[in-house]
Amino acid sequence: MKTFLLSSLLTLTAAAACAQLKMPSLEEAAAKRWSQLNSDRIAADADGQGITLSDIRRQIDPIVGQLRAAARTDLEFEQALGQAAKETLKSMTERQIVIAEFRAGGTDLPATYVEADIEETIRRDFGGDRNRFVASLRAAGTTPIAYRKTIEDRIIFEYMVGQIRRAAWDVNPGKIQEYYDKNKADFARKEQVKLRQITITQGAAEKPEETAARAQAWAAALREPAKVPALLAAYKIGGKPLAGKATFADVAERISSDDFAGKGGDAGWRNFEDLNQTVVGAVRKLKPGEVSPPLKFDVGAAPIYVIVSPESVRPAGFAQVNDPEVMAEIETKVRSISMKLAIQRWLEDLSAKHFVQLR
Q1: Rounded CA gap, 172 and 163, in Å?
Q2: DSSP assigned state of 141
Q3: 63 shares its domain with 136
Q4: Residue numbers of the domain that contains 13
Q5: What's the helix, strand, coil split of the chain in %, to 5?
Q6: Which partner from 81, 102, 230, 261 sits 20 to 30 angstroms from 327, CA to CA?
Q7: pLDDT tens-digit profile, the chain (359 residues)
Q8: Residues 134 and 96 in one domain
Q9: Beta 42-46 vs 49-52: how paired, if at all?
Q10: Whole-angstrom Cα distance, residue 20 to residue 49?
């Protein structure tokens, strides 16, 4: 029976795909005849709530074009539709039993939650015009009451799933260490440098030699921060006053013309092998905190100058589990896995508790 359900769904959805993609009229006619011979029906029952073939098709129709484009053959397309149908049916039945679980608890969702959601939609999508909102519902073949029920179900589902996610949110150090030990190979890294940089480009009214002199002046001032305020004034560079001794980041924010300027020139940890060899050569000669001379690069009609400063260098090897970046990465992954497993177990328990039947 389940095979027949998916076969029915594939045929009906394929009809939509044919119309979208202007497939041969013979196939269109065949699909249309099949559709005429097969009326809509209940595909599954989840705790008394029926799910129809048309419910599933409405969920799948928006991705039919993507599935068709990704498929190399008609068979692959049918298999992709079949998988989409299975996943959609599973998702819809799970959604219904979650909502049924909420209602079984005897708690009602406050009407104000639904009203606030609808009012926000009207304000955001319809400029506050309720008549336009109602007209859009009518054009979509639904009613304000049906739409309200949809919103209520969505809020309930998100609330219930959110409760499970919150319960699985905490990640203790033991779980972080366990994940690291099992996946240590994922934390291998190459020789890296934590780099800051300033990029200087030629001004519209500036001669090439003037750009070179300006880059030299900034590199010198970065080595002697006391000179920075005077240089800022000389080049009429505004911004908030410096707080204390000028840093590389202070200067980068004010004069650099690359994407790292807003972060004080912080380019993060970079693999040496990924850097330009001119930059590598300069960084190799510097101690942490030292500033390179302007590095000239001929890009386009006018050269650019890059000033770099390494903050730290780390050798090739394995990132340590107590590295803040590593801990944050593992914590995110472990939390995601924990929440996924918690929701999966919870849904399995609900499926055993509530009545679900595929027809």
Answers
A1: 19
A2: T
A3: no
A4: 2-104
A5: 60, 15, 25
A6: 261
A7: 444 444 444 444 554 444 444 444 444 544 554 454 345 677 777 777 788 888 888 888 888 889 889 988 888 888 888 898 889 999 999 999 999 999 988 888 999 999 999 999 999 999 999 999 999 999 988 999 999 999 999 999 999 999 999 999 999 999 999 999 999 999 999 999 999 999 999 998 899 999 999 999 999 999 999 999 999 999 999 878 888 899 999 999 999 999 999 999 999 999 999 999 999 999 999 999 999 999 999 987 889 999 999 999 999 999 999 999 899 999 999 999 999 999 999 999 998 888 877 76
A8: no
A9: antiparallel
A10: 31
Q: Is 284 helix (H, G, I), strand (E, B) or coil?
A: helix
Residues belonging to the chain: 359
Say if residue 243 is in the same domain as residue 163: no
First to last CA, the chain: 6
Instruction: State both tokens at 28.
Output: 């269109």
Per the confidence metrics, is the pTM higher than 0.90? no
Rounded Cα distance, 198 and 221, in Å: 13
β-pairing, 302-314 with 192-201?
Answer: antiparallel
Whether 88 and 154 map to the same domain: the answer is no
Q: Which residues contact 160 (CB under 8 A, 6 or more apart)?
A: 98, 99, 101, 102
Q: Which residue matches tokens 């300033």? A: 198
The position carrying tokens 């930059």 is 279
Cβ partners under 8 Å of residue 15, min gap 6: 28, 31, 32, 34, 35
343 near 165, Cβ under 8 Å? yes
Specify whether the backbone of 265 is left (phi greater than 0), alpha (psi in -120 to 50) or beta: left
Q: Which residue has the tokens 């070179």?
A: 212
Q: Rounded distance, CA 166 to CA 316, Å?
A: 38
The dihedral region occupied by 44, where left means phi > 0, alpha psi between -120 and 50, and beta the remainder, is beta
Domain assignment of residue 355, yes or no: no
Cα–Cα separations (whole angstroms), residue 207 to 70, 106, 210, 211, 214: 53, 78, 5, 6, 11
Do 243 and 303 fall within a single domain?
Answer: yes
Are residues 253 and 229 part of one domain? yes
Strand partners, 314: 192
